[in-house]
Fold this sequence. Notes:
Strand content: 35-45%
CATH architecture: Roll
Shape: globular
Strand order of the largest sheet: 1-2-4-5-6-3
Helix content: 10-25%
Oligomer: single chain
Order of helices and strands: EEHHEEEE
Amino acid sequence: xxxxxxxxxxxxxxxxxxxxxxxxxxxxxxxxxxxxxxxxxxxxxxxxxxxxxxxxxxxxxxxxxxxxxxxxxxxxxxxxxxxxxxxxxxxxxxxxxxxxxxxxxxxxxxxxxxxxxxx
Length: 119
């Protein structure tokens, strides 16, 4: 199931010839997933953050992308959904190796560090 346009909106996605992959997305806090994760204090599920990265990279590469291995995935801060919550994806892609971070634009805080292999 694709999350784009119902869990988040893509503001920008860019992949340079040098392998820099950047993107900016806005999360939609009204999504029904938050009713179960969690009703009293909604939190963006970690798997949804990984799906956003995968979908945005696929958009930049103009093909389906999947993770064949995740070597490191560190969540440094919880993502609490609110109106206007914007995330910046800042990655480097060399061959099939993806490395980088997800930053909460609203306060410039890194929320995720990722090292993965894609296919």
